[in-house]
Specification:
This protein is an all-alpha fold and about 160 residues long. The protein is built from six helices and no strands. Helix content is about 65%, strand content about 0%. α1 (about 5-20) runs antiparallel to α5 and α4 (about 60-80) runs parallel beside α5. It is globular and about 45 Å long. This is DinB superfamily protein.
Length: about 160
């Protein structure tokens, strides 16, 4: 992958999880306020809030699903093979206590960090790997939007 494309890929994944660099009046798909990415949006919520069912799912399940997808992307980029994944299982969290909620947030942040490191260290870039990295960005951006809409619902 060219250095330019790699920098852009990392910038987009960073925006999804951390928000755009601040201060900035430029954003590709988030708000320009600080901490407008997935990690900060979720960090302000309690276990009780993230356990609330909204149309059959909750924010804890969204967070863990995003983590799971990143894990799959990392494994694919490292091995060249998509790991066997049980997508239904990635949505099974019905509720969490405060300890489990902190653990989910830590695991999500850790996978995000691993993803950035994997992007930096990948030895082989081809169209399939680039597609996987871009798909991860699109997936994360989609869930960022869903998460923000769910937060509006539970904090209204």
């Amino acid at each position: 992958m060219s250095d330019l494309f790699l920098r852009s890929t990392k910038k987009m994944i960073s925006e999804a999880f951390e928000g755009p660099p601040f201060p900035s009046n430029v954003s590709w798909f988030t708000n320009t306020e600080p901490d407008s990415g997935i990690l900060a949006a979720l960090s302000r919520l309690s276990a009780e809030q993230v356990s609330l069912s909204i149309h059959g799912t909750n924010l804890a399940a969204h967070a863990d699903h995003v983590r799971y997808q990143m894990w799959g992307t990392i494994e694919f980029l490292k091995t060249g093979k998509m790991p066997e994944m049980d997508w239904k299982q990635s949505w099974m969290i019905a509720s969490v206590d405060e300890d489990r909620w902190k653990e989910i947030q830590k695991e999500l942040r850790d996978e995000y960090t691993r993803l950035v490191q994997t992007l930096d260290s990948a030895l082989h870039w081809d169209e399939t790997n680039a597609d996987e990295a871009l798909g991860c960005i699109a997936h994360s951006a989609y869930h960022l939007g869903a998460i923000k809409q769910m937060i509006k619902y539970i904090t209204a």
